[in-house]
Protein 1
Amino acid sequence: MTTWRGEFRQWQKGSGDPVCEVDLAVDAFLRARLAAIDPQAGWLSEETADDPIRLECDRVWVVDPIDGTRDYVRGRSGWSVSVALVDSFRPVLGVLDAPAVGEVWMAAVGQGAWRNGVPLKASPRTDLAGARVPADQIPRADADLVTVAKPNSIALRIAKVAAGEADLCASLRWGNEWDIAAAALIAAEAGATVSDALGAPLRFNTPTGEAFGVLATAPGIHAAAVVRLRERAERALPR
C-alpha cells in the first residue's frame, strides 16, 4: 500500500501481462512468513519458478502475490493478495487481502467464510435470467444477465459471489491455480457452488498448476449455468 499509486519498476512478462517489483517483494515476504508457519508445505506462486518437488508434498501454499496487477499498476483498487493452503488437492485455508478497499476475506474448510469478520452467504437466486455477473460487458447470448462492477482480480470477482453481491463468475479458458485457490474456498464455504468451466470439481497442486476455467455461482443456478456455457467451454478446451 505504501507503493501503490507511487513510483515502482514495472515491465511485461507477456502481451498484456504486467508485473512490477512489488509483485516480487510480496512474493518473497509471503514465502518467508508462510514457510515459518508450515515449513513442510510446498510452494506454488505466480512469481516463483515452479519446482516439481511440490508434487511430493501433501500440503502446498498456492499464492498470487498481487492478483490483478493491471489494476495495481494503474492505481485502481481492484487487486488483492491471494493465499491458499492446499491439502490433498483441495484448499483448506484461504485468505484474500484487498487493502485498497479495506477488505480481508478468510475461509477454513468446514468452518465458513468471512469478510472483515462478518460471515458470508451466497445468493439464494434460482433463476439464471437476471443473474448478476462481474463483467465489463455481456455477450449477446447472455443478454438476460446483469453486469455489476468488475475488479481486475478474478479472486475478488469470485469473492463477490461468496458475498451475495454477484450470482455468477465464469472463466472459460485455461488459467492458473494461484488465481482461484483461495477464492474458490471462500465461495464454497459461503455456500456457493464452485467448479471448473465444465462443472467438474477443481483440483489443486496439479502437475501443470492449471485449471480449465472456473464457474462460481449461487447454488440454485449452477446447473443451468453449466448447460448454457458448455458449448462455449468445450470449444475453448483444446490445448
Protein 2
Amino acid sequence: MDGLLILAIETATGCGSVSLTRGGRNDFRLLAECTSQPDMTHSRRLLGSIQWMMQSAGVHWNELDAIGISMGPGSFTGLRIGMAAAKSIAMAAGTPLVGIPTLDALVMCAAPENSLLCCLLDARKQEVYACFYRTDETGWPTRIDAPVTIRPSDLLLNINESVVLVGPGAHAYSDVFQNNEHVHIFSDFRGQPRAVNVGILAEEKHRQGKTLDPVSAAPMYVRASEAEVNLKKKMTEQIRQ
C-alpha cells in the first residue's frame, strides 16, 4: 500500500489530539483521529486515546512506519508529556521518531495562495509564540523566520502588509489585533493545532531521512521555563553575594 503509516501526537495546547495517517500531501489518507479537551492533564488520557484509536482502526504497533510528535513551542507540561509518550512508543516498537515544529503544522490549517501568514499560540504572560510564513506558487506555506516569543503589540510593529493570523494566540489577543488594517484573523474553529497535520509533515520528513534520536530528543520550548528563570535568577544573586 502506498504512503507511510504515521502515528502522530499533538499536545502543545490544552486541546490535544492523536491521529493515524497514511501518505503525505499528495496521497494523504486519514485513518483515525481523536481530539479532546477535558478538565484533566494530557498524562491522564494520552496513552488511552492512542490505544483506543489503534484498536478502532485495526492497526498494530509493528505496522507503524514512524511516530510524529509536535515539538513546540507550546505548553511546557503538554510538550513534555507528548514527547515522553512518543519516545516511549518509538523505543518500545522500534519505530523511527520524527519531530515537527508545532507552528509548521498549525499553518497548514490555513494557506491562502500568495498570502503572508503568522501562526500564533498563547504563551501566557501577555506574550505569544509567533512565526511568519508565506505560501509559494503551489499554495504550500514556507517558514520565513524562526519562532519567537513576543508581545502582541510588538508583533504589530513588524507587520506592514496584509497578513492572516492563524491559531489560538490570535483569538486570545484579538482586542490588540482586530483594529489593525493589515490584520485578518482566521476562523477559530479551523485554526487549531491538529495531529493530522503533524502526521502529514512527519511522513515527508521521514522520507527525507530526518528522524530524531528517541533517547536525546527534547521539546522546542523557545522560551525558558519558569523553573529555569528562577534558577538563573538565584544563581545570579548568589554570584553577586
Protein 3
Amino acid sequence: MTAVLQTRDLAKSFGAVTAAADVNVTVGEREIVGVIGANGAGKTTFINMVTGYLKPSAGRIYFRGRDITGLPPREVVRAGVCRSFQVSQLFRELTVLDNVLIALGMLREPRLSWLAPLATPAREREARALLARYTIEEHAAAPVAALPQGVRKLLDIAMATVGAPSLLLLDEPTSGVAVEEKFPLMDTVMAQVAASGAACLFVEHDMEIVERYAARVIAFYDGRVLADGPTAHVLADAEVRKYVIGTEIHRSRAAA
C-alpha cells in the first residue's frame, strides 16, 4: 500500500493533560477511513496536528514521504492536505460565491490585496464549477447566513477541496444536519472524493454514516488508537462497543 499519510508515535500534551499519545496511523491511496471516539478521545486533536493547527509534543507526520510535522496550516494545504471543520469556517455576511472566490484567492495568491480583484472571469467560472459539483450552485448569490445547515456543510467541504488535495480530512461532516439530509450530503461528498482520487478521513459520531461510507475505521479512546481495521471488525470489537459506541446501541442495531 502506497502511504499518503503516516504518523509515528504522535503525541500532544497540554501541561499535565495528555490529549494524544503513541498515535501510529497509515492511510493509503484512495482509502476512505472513518474516525470514531467519544468526546475528548483525541480525534480532533489528531486532525489538528495533521493539518498544522496544533504542533505535536512528540512524534512525526509524513505526507507522501515528506515530513510535514509542525508546518503551518497554509503550507500543509499547499502540500496537498485539506480539511473541513465541525463548525463551518465561513464568512456569514458574504455570498456563497464570494466565499469560494476568497478560498481560491488564498490558495493561488501568496498575499491577498484589496487592489487585486478576486472575481476575475476565470476564477468565477472555476468557483461556479466547484459549486455545481457539490450541487449548491443555485445558492451562489445567497448570503451564507441564510443557508440551511446542510448547504453550509457542503460549502465548507467544497472550499476545502479548491486545491485538489490528495488527502481530505472532514471533522464531523453531518453534525447538525437534518436526518433526511445526511445521506444525500455524504453521497455528494463521497462522489467528489472518488472522482478526485483523494484519500479521505472523516470524524463521525453517527454510526450509520460510518457503516455506510467507511471501508476502514480508526477508533480513539483516551488519546490513543483503540482499534484500527475493517469497519465491521472494529464496530464489533468488544472494547470499541464498551468505550466508543456502547454495547446497547450495537445490540439494537444488530436486532433492527
Protein 4
Amino acid sequence: MKIGILETGEISDDLLDKHGDYPSMFKRLLHAIDPDVDFFGVKVLDGELPETPDDADGWIITGSKFGVYEDLPWIGPLKEFILTSVDHKIPLAGICFGHQILAEALGGKVEKSHKGWGLGVHDYTIEAKPTWMGGSDEAFSGHAVHQDQVIDLPETATVIASSEFCPYAALVYGDPENPDALSVQPHPEFSADFIDDLIELRVPDVFSEDDASKARATLGLPVNNADWALWIHKFLDLAATHNKK
C-alpha cells in the first residue's frame, strides 16, 4: 500500500528530534503491522494538497492545534478533498483533528467542548464491531489530547466507540463492513513519553497544572495503540484491495 499523510499540524521543534514528525510516527505505528507500507507526507497546513485522491491507496489525516471551524485558507480545500476522496472510494483515516474534520466535511458539527481538555489516558467502550476489527475486546484505552469534539453526527456515520467524556470517540462512514472512512479521537500514534514531554512543554500556557497532574497520573496505564494500528491497517487494506477489483 501507498499511504499519504495529510499533515494538518506539526510537532513542536522542541519535541521533533526525540519523537519525530507525524509521518514518522504513523510509519512506526503501521510498520509494526506491515513493514512494506509506503508513506509520504503532504503539508496541508502550508497550502499543499495532492492533485487527486488517486495519488495514494489511502490517506491519513493528522492531528492539529487548530480547530476545524477556524477561518484558515487550507480548511475549505481539505474538506473538498475529503468529499472527492469519498466520491472516488479512496479510504480516509482521521486522527483527532482528522476525526473532527471528516465529521465536518461529511455533514456533522464540531465545537470546543465545555468539558475542557481531554488529556492523558482515556477509556472507551466499543459500541459496534465490524468484522475487520476481529475479535477485539469490548473497550480500549488511548492517549487523548483535545478540547474540540464532534457534537453532531453526519448521516452516514456509525459510532464504533464512545466514552462519557467523548460520546463520538470513533466513527466509520458508509457501510461499516467496507467503510469509506474511519476516524478516532485519541492518538494511537502517540507514546506516553511523548504525551509527558508535550505536557511539560505546554504547562501552564495551554494546560493547567491541575489538568497536567491528573493526566500524568494516567500515563503508566496500558493503551491499545497496537490494536488501532491493526484496525487502521485492516481498514485501509480492505478498502484499497476492494477498490482495485
